[in-house]
Amino acid sequence: MSPLLRRKKKEPASGERVVTLIGKPGCHLCDDARVVVEEVCGGMGVRWEELDISVDAELHREYWEQIPVVLVDGEQHTFWKVDGERLRRALGG
């Protein structure tokens, strides 16, 4: 793959990795994603947070067709189905 087409990994200045799960209540795919994110982040000691598109109009506009969405350090990592091994690799594990 051309170096021009590769995504650059953005690492936070503090060195602390952050995973964000974007979803909404009642979403079974979001429930499945939460289990994977909790397992991977818990096992690696990585901080994670969850945001709800039903209470944030901007998030709703941006992600409503893709939930659940996982961000790693603010960059979109995946949507719909979360692969635990891929998430581990993205976090350096």
UniProtKB/TrEMBL annotation:
Protein's organism: Streptomyces cremeus
This protein is called what?
Glutaredoxin family protein
Pfam families tied to this protein: Glrx-like
Cross-referenced InterPro entries:
Glutaredoxin-like, Glutaredoxin-like_YDR286C, Thioredoxin-like_sf
Show the Gene3D superfamilies listed in the entry.
Answer: Glutaredoxin (3.40.30.10)
Question: What are the boundaries of the signal sequence?
Answer: none
Q: Which domain of life is it from?
A: Bacteria
